[in-house]
Amino acid sequence: MSKRIESKVSITALGTCLMRATSYYEKDPCYKSEDFIASMIIPSYLNAMAKYNISRSVLKKALFKVPGIYEYIISRTRFIDEIFNSLAENVDQVLIFGAGFDSRAMRFRNQLKNARVFELDAQVTQQAKINRFVKRKIDFPMNLKFISIDFTKDSLVEKLDKAGFGKNSRCLFLLEGLTYYLDQESIDNTLNLISDYSSKDSVLVFDYASASIVRQEEINGDTKIKKHYQTLAKAGERPGFMLEGEIQDFLAKYKFGLIEEVDSAQLAEKYFCKEDFEPVAQKFRIVKAKKKV
Ligand SMILES: C[S@@+](CC[C@H](N)C(=O)[O-])C[C@H]1O[C@@H](n2cnc3c(N)ncnc32)[C@H](O)[C@@H]1O
């Protein structure tokens, strides 16, 4: 893990939380998502800006500069919320990897009342989240357990065993906005463990960057995207893993079968009634897969 993420709160986790909070106040139904908790845990001056149309436009212009990223985060939130809505009642355990300021353990607490929920993240970011919830007097559900971890260094098996994660049950695994910050080895270790520990019909949801599109971006040399990467690199959260080849082959290595994969054009059509988002969102895919055995 880079030095920054070991000692400072993840800048990308803060960014996605701010986008969800802003989206919560949107009037346009395409831009609206339902993370009311995000709006409670961002700094109060940003929350005040997000609330009103004019200041919200100023905030978006100043902070969400990368074309298409805001739309991508909104549609990713809505897509994954739909999965939680339809599945949460039927799983025994939920594991949220790189949870950041994810609030689904709270927002879906009724549907998840019979499940155990584990959130994994870097210690500093996780503690910042806990502090924000305590400060705003938002209570954590009893079935939520925090596990601090560095996926690139620590043993996931040891961490899960210690936290009481049960083997061979039906699980929902979520890696939202995480895979592209890890290296190939950490991805492989994480997915092997997911495969070994889960029962048939467990569900895996993650998004990833497509290697071929990233290469195309580099050739095109879009300056806004380059700037975005430079900012992330400075913050120690430089994108790493990209998926080469067919998604079906990748999933099969871990005994998962593809249920659904959506790219930016499909998300744009589904949630925004338009053909596609701006370039930055075009490299991302969201995958929903099911354990086969
Ligand atoms: C883009 S944020 C996504 C947060 C959240 N899932 C969301 O969608 O809002 C990436 C998250 O991955 C975590 N992360 C990145 N690299 C990590 C690592 N090596 N070990 C543990 N967590 C890591 C960061 O702390 C951060 O919370």
Short recap of the structure:
The protein is globular, with a radius of gyration of 18 Å.
Descriptive report:
The protein is α/β, with parallel strands linked by helices. Helix content is about 45%, strand content about 15%. It contains 14 helices and seven strands. It has helices at about 5, 10-25, 35-40, 45-50, 55-65, 70-85, 105, 125-135, 155-165, 185-195, 210-220, 225-235, 245-250, 265-270, and strands at about 95, 115-120, 145-150, 170-175, 205-210, 255-265, 285-290. Strands 3-2-1-4-5-7-6 form a seven-stranded mixed beta sheet, sandwiched between helices. The longest helix has 19 residues, at about 70-85. It starts with a helix and ends with a strand. The model has no long low-confidence stretch (mean pLDDT about 90). Bound molecules: S-adenosylmethionine. The site of S-adenosylmethionine (SAM) has 23 residues, from α2. Its EC number is 2.1.1.-. Keywords: Methyltransferase, S-adenosyl-L-methionine, Transferase. Belongs to the UPF0677 family. It is an enzyme of class 2 (transferase).
Topology:
Layout: H1 3-7, H2 11-24, H3 36-41, H4 44-51, H5 53-63, H6 69-87, E1 93-97, H7 104-107, E2 116-121, H8 123-135, E3 144-148, H9 156-163, E4 171-175, H10 184-197, E5 203-209, H11 211-220, H12 223-234, H13 247-252, E6 256-263, H14 264-272, E7 284-291
Parallel strand pairs: 1-2, 1-4, 2-3, 4-5
Antiparallel strand pairs: 5-7, 6-7
Bound molecules: S-adenosylmethionine (SAM).
S-adenosylmethionine binds at residues 1, 5, 10, 12-13, 16-17, 98-102, 121-122, 125, 149-152, 176-178, 181.
Protein name: S-adenosyl-L-methionine-dependent methyltransferase
InterPro entries: Ppm1/Ppm2/Tcmp (IPR007213), SAM-dependent_MTases_sf (IPR029063), SAM_mthyl_Trfase_ML2640-like (IPR011610)
Function: Exhibits S-adenosyl-L-methionine-dependent methyltransferase activity.
